[in-house]
Structures are given as structure tokens and as C-alpha cells.
Amino acid sequence: VHFGELEAIYKHASTNLPSSEATTILEEEEEEEEEEEEEEEENKTMRKRKRKKQGGGYSYSKVITPMAEFFGNLMKQMMDHQENLHKKFTEMIERLDEERRAREESWRNKELAQLEKEAEARSREKQLARNREAIIVSYLEKISGQ
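Above: the chain's sequence. Below: its structure in C-alpha cell form.
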């Protein structure tokens, strides 16, 4: 592997740096090159393995298909269960909301009936007060002689 431009840049940079820093940079470069070479070797071996498996070795698709089917069925069951729970939840919320509305309507009707009774009682009291006043006025008129 030749890195002409990079080597030229690093040689130029290493002449400007003190000797300890230059050696550190060179060591880092060597480590990076070694890592890159190791990665290339790993990639080559992986490619060879893939070719062997593709050629006629053991196929993962035979294992993956039943697993995928199992997990697919499991997900379907879970989704159905979630949908049923959501349906029950919404039905319960609607039922509770209807019950609440019915209680509020009943309360309103009771309050309205109570207000009507109070209004009738007030009108009776007013009528009684008018009758008393009329009796008192007539009694006073008799006494005064008018």
C-alpha cells in the first residue's frame, strides 16, 4: 500500500516537529496501517466464507423462515390482543361517559324540581302576605270608621 501524498505531508510535518512528537506520529501511522491491513484480511476471509455458504453449505433461510413465521404469528396475536384491549377500553370509557351524563341529567332534573318547588313556596308566601295585609287594612278601616 503506497500513500505518496500522505507520506510527503507527514515527512514535511515530522521535520517541523520535535523528534519525540515525530516518532509518536509515525507510530500512530504504523498502527493505523496495521489496523487497515487487519480489516482488509478480515473482509477477505468473510467474503470467502460467504462464497462457501452460497455455494452449497448450510442455508440460514431454512432456519429463518420458521422463526420469521413464528414471530410473525406472535406479533399478529399480540396486535389482535392489543386491539381487543383497546376496544374494551373505549367501550368502557363510552359506558362510563354515558353513566356520567345520565347522573348529571338526573341531578339537573332534581335541581330544577327543587327550584320549581321553591318558586311555588315563594309565590304562596307572597299570596299569604298579600292576604294578611288586606285583612289588616280592612280591620284598620273598620276601627277607624272609614
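The two ends are 139 Å apart (CA to CA).
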